[in-house]
Amino acid sequence: MSDRLEIPLFPLGTVLFPGGLLPLRVFEPRYVDMTKLCLRDNTPFGVCLIREGHETGVPAAPHAVGCLARIEHWDVPHPNLFALLARGGERFRVLKQSVNAAGLIRAEVELLAQPEAAVATDAACEEVLRLAVKRAGEDSVPGPIRFDDPLWVGYRLAEILPIMPLERQALLEENDATARLNRLREHMLAHGIIEKVNKNK
């Protein structure tokens, strides 16, 4: 895959992380057309957190860093309504963008290098995630389960912890796996999550 792609963007009020699963109900004509093209050509679209604006109506201004989304399952429960399940792929940075006549944002993006994973998983982060998965079941997180992978642990914790969207965006943009885990541990300490886990051992 080239380091640069031209893709349609789907600005949303949520952050998609690599390996994460994103269910979507697509009904706006611009995104219905986008979905049809992605399915036809087996190509991804880009998910970016909205910086300004809303998910529907006038095209929203997206954050510059997002995540590729590849459609894994789809259904058409009603005409012009797609029910999708997309999986997060590589992170990217928007280099330039334009809006077509239908209101769909198309962008030239640069794929970001995957952070080095040759670090030990943070013990507190791993323990909290293990407990969450044990309570909710393995189906509660996108598999395969990899508790020994610092990248996987960091991304999955960033998805399930009660974190504001802008903080999730910062965690997506973080290029260092160890730094991401450190930020997550600090968040859990500040909100008493680790203390609660220790009390429930």
Can you tell me about this structure?
- With 201 residues, this protein is of the alpha+beta class.
- It folds into two domains: 4-111, Roll (Archaeosine Trna-guanine Transglycosylase, Chain: A, domain 4); 123-199, Up-down Bundle (Methane Monooxygenase Hydroxylase, Chain G, domain 1).
- It is 34% helix and 32% strand.
- It is built from six helices and seven strands, in the order E-E-H-E-E-E-E-E-H-H-H-H-H.
- It has helices spanning 29-41, 123-136, 150-160, 165-173, 177-190, 193-199; strands spanning 4-12, 21-26, 45-52, 61-62, 65-78, 81-99, 105-111.
- A five-stranded mixed β-barrel has the order 1-3-5-6-7.
- Helix 2 crosses helix 3 (150-160).
- The longest helix is centred in the middle third of the chain and has 14 residues, at 123-136.
- The chain starts with a strand and ends with a helix.
